[in-house]
Amino acid sequence: MERKGHMIGVVVSWDAELRAPPEWIYRMHSNFEDTKAERTPHYKVLFRGPTPSSLMVAYLPQTQLERITDTRPDIPTLDNYFTHFDGTRFIMQPWLRELFPEDEDEDA
């Protein structure tokens, strides 16, 4: 869950620390607290948009996220990233598991 807007999304990718163009970093992380967040893991998160078929994508530091389980948000395109929802969490597609093999134990 995204902490500021209380939106429920699904993480589909992550970086060990912020990876973005300098202009974007300056625009998004202009204060001291945000600058510290540059060295924390960042996550690509999908959220449902304002209409059922729309999608919002965010790139957020770990400090702005809270992990929740047992919830399956209705977000378009999740089947591109995950094979299914097991009642607790989403299970990655094989191609995504290849990109993030260290997360495989979390899916087992």
From TrEMBL:
The lineage of its organism: Eukaryota, Metazoa, Chordata, Craniata, Vertebrata. It comes from Nothobranchius pienaari. This is Hemimethylated DNA-binding domain-containing protein. InterPro entries: Clp_protease_adapter_ClpF, Hemimethylated_DNA-bd_dom, Hemimethylated_DNA-bd_sf. Pfam families: YccV-like (PF08755). PANTHER family: HEMIMETHYLATED DNA-BINDING DOMAIN-CONTAINING PROTEIN (PTHR48439:SF1). Residues 1-93 form the Hemimethylated DNA-binding domain. One of its GO terms (molecular function) is DNA binding.
